[in-house]
């Protein structure tokens, strides 16, 4: 029997709600893209919307990692890691560059970028720089986003 104090702390309700709202466009756009014909008049717009949203959300993920680094440093009275802040900004540049990569390659590279960002965020929780619930939430988000990028890749290949 486990100790009740060992039970995982769930993410705050607002975090869960906002995460669901942020993940919905990935799922909706990828499924829409997979379901429409190659000659559908909205196909190009759907691809651009999904690439734009992926670029913005990769920037957001990098920014949230920046916030984790700054919070951890101020809470523990230590300096940020040598790669924390530059890597947070790197996500911005990667997201911007991937927008201009031709389809379907962009979706494959977005999948890799989101998987890497998700792994990096999980390491933050394992290093006690972020709450444990954050790593679990990022795992779910990473699986959904990478899955959406794979669906988009297959729909545009």
TrEMBL record:
It holds the Pfam family DUF3429. InterPro entries: DUF3429. Signal peptide: none annotated. The chain crosses the membrane at residues 15-37, 49-68, 88-116, 137-155. It comes from the Bacteria. Keywords: Membrane, Transmembrane, Transmembrane helix. This is DUF3429 family protein.
